[in-house]
Amino acid sequence: MKILTIAALLVLGGCAARQPGLPVYGQIPSFELVSETGRPFDRTALDGKVWVADFIFTTCTGPCPRMSSLMREVQQAAIPDVQLVSFSVDPEHDTPEALALYAARYHAQPERWHFLTGQREALDHLARDAFKLSNVDGSLVHSTRLVLVDRQSRIRRYYTTSDDDPAAQVVRDIKRVLAERS
Asked: How far apart are the C-alpha atoms of 100 and 115, rounded to whole Å?
């Protein structure tokens, strides 16, 4: 009887430990921008990969440094094949050169963390329509959320900088998304 009870607890415990999948909030469309290297970068470079995105600008003295520090924490978790993408909300000033200097300040690994700029209209479409965050309209007012995107370029979760240990939450959810079947 004792063995049966232990087996039942293990089975029930296993079921209780399973978490439901993360919801899908939207689909990220194709885009073509320019990276901190000055080279073209399009969404196909992220196809089949889990990635985390944010929207920042390099001269920000407000929330952007905190966001970039959180992205660095996610990078340091060293989860294979996970990419990080920081989109500029100040394309007039965030040239590839400015983005490269900013990337160096946060010890971004160039094969994993990309800093992108481009035409204001393209960045605005991504921020507002695709990521459902805010406008890129020259005001430099922008969302401070990080966004988890799955292998099919679908938004799976948003994180705010005021969350309790947001980097740990992102890493936990990355592992959940990586464990999903495609």
From this structure: 8
- pTM beyond 0.90: the answer is no
Kindly report the backbone phi and psi dihedral angles of residue 89, in degrees, each rounded to the nearest multiple of 5, phi listed first: -105, 5
Domain region containing 101: 24-179
pLDDT in tens, 48-74: 999 999 999 999 988 899 989 999 999
How far, in Å, CA of 54 to CA of 21, rounded? 22
Domain count, the chain: 1
Residue 99 burial (CB count, 10 A): 25
DSSP string, 105-150: HTT--TTTEEEEE--HHHHHIIIIIIS-S---SSS-----EEEEE-
Contact 32, 40 (CB under 8 A): yes
Q: Smallest Cα–Cα separation from 89: which of 145, 171, 163, 165?
A: 145
DSSP H helical segments within the chain, as ranges? 2-17, 64-76, 96-105, 120-124, 166-179
CA separation for the pair 40, 96 (Å, rounded): 11
Residue 2 belongs to a domain:
no
CATH number at residue 98: 3.40.30.10
